[in-house]
Write a structure and sequence with these properties.
Elements (H helix, E strand, L loop, with lengths): L2 H8 L8 H9 L6 H16 L4 H30 L9 H4 L4 H19 L4 H16 L3 H4 L3 H9 L1 H11 L6 H20 L3 H7 L4 H5 L3 H22 L4 H20 L5 H9 L1 H15 L3
Helix pairs in contact: 3-4, 3-10, 3-17, 4-6, 7-10, 9-11, 10-11, 11-14, 11-16, 14-15, 15-17
């Protein structure tokens, strides 16, 4: 483990925990909450549209932490041999040996049981929709070996909360969920292509596929198209549920902010790729504010 990596970890709140618990926290990526936000926000969009009670927002928040942690463990179990060969990931707990596969499996089982407990609080339709997401969670990490489009499969997985959120409040999958779900998939294609550019050199060495490698120097054009489609589909979702003017005003301003993000993105700078990727949390929060404001009478 490099000293710089150790220094970063020592400054995180997880460093206050006993060593084994620290490793489990890093395995769940509790030190990197951006992934939890990107998983959570699409579900909150659907909750905002359907006027969900506060407890559902809290349940989705806790559930996102749990399921993102479970997804990271599954990903690292599949990828631990790859991770050993990549500079950015070789110090992950499974790749470094700090956590054994058996320990990771036991933690995964505990998280899935907790997730099931939260899911049991919802209606029958939501339970079915939530359980169906497990297939995506388990198979997504394999996609980088099989296709140049693993970012699309991440989109299917990370935006499943749209379907779950709508099912939790309505007991159905109303028409608005489909443009909203598709919008989320395009959003994920955009931000995860940006993120993947931070690893293109290592990915090429170990044979991992990605849209970043597929698009190369044309990535900025493709990401712009993904984001454009994202906002068009958000507009359609808003029109389908007759959002108020606040929604359209915030959506327009968010589109401008995102356009600036893409134009200023330095494709060949790994540090800038990470920065631009993380700014998508702001994009997601602004969309949430648009749906909340647009749903007001």
């Amino acid at each position: 483990m490099t000293s710089g990596f150790t220094d970063i970890r020592q400054k995180h709140w997880l460093a206050l925990l006993p060593q084994p618990w620290q490793n489990y926290g890093y395995l769940m990526r509790l030190d990197r909450p951006i992934g939890t936000w990107l998983l959570l926000l699409p579900g909150w969009w659907a909750l905002a549209i359907t006027h969900a009670p506060l407890w559902l927002y809290l349940a989705f928040g806790v559930g996102s932490i749990i399921m993102r942690g479970a997804g990271c463990i599954i990903n690292d179990l599949w990828d631990r041999d790859f991770d050993k060969q990549v500079e950015r990931t070789r110090n992950r707990p499974l790749a470094s040996g700090a956590v054994k596969p058996r320990e990771a499996l036991l933690l995964l089982l505990a998280l899935l049981l907790l997730g099931l407990l939260i899911l049991s609080l919802l209606n029958g339709m939501a339970v079915v929709v939530g359980a169906a997401s497990l297939l995506l969670i388990v198979t997504y990490p394999l996609m980088k070996r099989l296709t140049w489009w693993p970012q699309a499969f991440l989109g299917f997985t990370f935006n499943w909360g749209v379907l779950l959120g709508a099912a939790s409040t309505t007991g159905t999958l109303p028409p608005f969920v489909w443009p909203l779900y598709a919008a989320g998939i395009l959003w994920t294609l955009g931000y995860d292509t940006i993120y993947a550019h931070a690893d293109t050199a290592d990915d090429a060495l170990v044979g991992v596929k990605s849209t970043a490698r597929l698009f190369g120097q044309h990535s900025k054009r493709w990401v712009s198209l993904f984001y454009a489609g994202f906002f068009v589909l958000l507009l359609l979702a808003g029109l389908s549920v007759q959002m108020g003017w606040v929604f359209y005003a915030i959506l327009f301003l968010t589109a401008l902010q995102t356009l600036h993000l893409v134009w200023s993105w330095k494709v060949d700078s790994p540090a800038d790729c990470i920065t631009c990727f993380k700014l998508n949390r702001l994009t997601g929060l602004l969309i949430l504010a648009a749906f909340i404001g647009g749903a007001l009478p």
